[in-house]
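A reminder from the course coordinator: this example appears on the midterm review sheet, so study it carefully.

Given structure:
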């Protein structure tokens, strides 16, 4: 499996886990959450993780995190949590967790808990162990694994106050509305309204909307309608929250076409808006784009941009996006 030029690409998933780590643990791994002494804080060690595993790239992952936490049972000593969020089926996944776990133990000489969250679409793929036996010697790892498909009832998720319930619902609704843009728009608008109804602070609303926006992608015209609906909702609730760069980028391209007042101008504006959006999606999914890739995007037609945008979420590599 090919690894992208940068495994440290910044996704809304990564930001959500970083910003709301206790909620992430409470929703997906409640037993571990209960065992952690949150009063002593926690620390992300992403750079340390990158150094430990840099020569053990056994497959492409969505994100991974190393977190130093205190447990109620460990007393004054710290322990470590290694989290893997896997975006697609990978036959080497369990082996990778095994490799990372023993390398991290070798570095810290402290217990390492490897936890896996699977975001793929294969119902029967749920690896939770890896090991081998030779001449009576046994070596291996059993690890907790949670799959987003384990939460099929998105209606129940929408009433759960944990923010990752909405993230999980967005994942399910993305799968259910594939190929139906109107249904996807309705789902996206419903989730956006829930963000405001929870009376969360501004930053949490923006952070979580970024995740929903990344998952539930809709055509440009429906995205414009969404911005319009959100603006109206914010005015009604006196909550001017969403002013993201994605909105500015799309509107910049669209307004160019509308102001020209000609079909050519409208098409050019639409093309620029879709180009800005697709560049952002590819950057978040696969890391910084090369100048060659940017040049290819600039030469593309509207139809090509739309086709590539539809492939972004399920593509494993950048080459998959541009494939025939």
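Designed residues:
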């Amino acid at each position: 499996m090919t690894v992208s030029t940068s495994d440290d690409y910044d996704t809304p998933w990564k930001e959500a886990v970083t910003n709301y780590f206790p909620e992430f643990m409470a929703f997906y791994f409640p037993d571990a959450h209960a065992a952690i002494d949150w009063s002593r804080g926690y620390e992300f060690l992403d750079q340390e993780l990158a150094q430990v595993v840099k020569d053990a790239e056994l497959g492409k992952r969505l994100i991974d995190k190393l977190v130093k936490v205190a447990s109620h049972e460990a007393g004054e000593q710290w322990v470590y949590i290694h989290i893997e969020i896997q975006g697609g089926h990978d036959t080497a996944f369990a082996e990778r967790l095994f490799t990372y776990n023993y390398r991290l133990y070798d570095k810290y000489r402290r217990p390492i808990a490897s936890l896996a969250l699977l975001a793929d679409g294969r119902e029967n793929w749920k690896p939770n162990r890896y090991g081998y036996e030779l001449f009576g010697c046994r070596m291996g790892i059993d690890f907790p694994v949670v799959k987003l498909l384990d939460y099929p009832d998105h209606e129940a998720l929408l009433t759960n106050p944990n923010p990752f319930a909405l993230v999980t619902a967005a994942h399910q609704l993305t799968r259910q509305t594939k190929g139906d843009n109107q249904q996807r728009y309705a789902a996206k608008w419903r989730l956006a309204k829930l963000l405001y109804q929870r009376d969360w602070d501004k930053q949490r609303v923006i952070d979580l909307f970024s995740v929903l926006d990344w998952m539930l992608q809709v055509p440009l015209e429906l995205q414009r309608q969404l911005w319009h609906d959100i603006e109206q909702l914010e005015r009604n609730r006196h909550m001017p929250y969403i002013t993201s760069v994605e909105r500015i980028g799309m509107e910049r391209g669209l307004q160019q076409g509308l102001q020209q007042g000609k079909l050519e101008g409208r098409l050019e504006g639409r093309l620029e808006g879709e180009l800005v959006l697709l560049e952002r999606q590819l950057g978040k999914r696969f890391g910084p784009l090369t100048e060659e890739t940017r040049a290819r995007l600039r030469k593309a037609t509207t139809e090509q941009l739309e086709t590539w945008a539809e492939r972004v979420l399920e593509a494993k590599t950048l080459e998959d996006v541009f494939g025939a």
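The chain has three domains: 12-150, 160-165+174-243, 256-310. The first strand starts at residue 42 and ends at 44.
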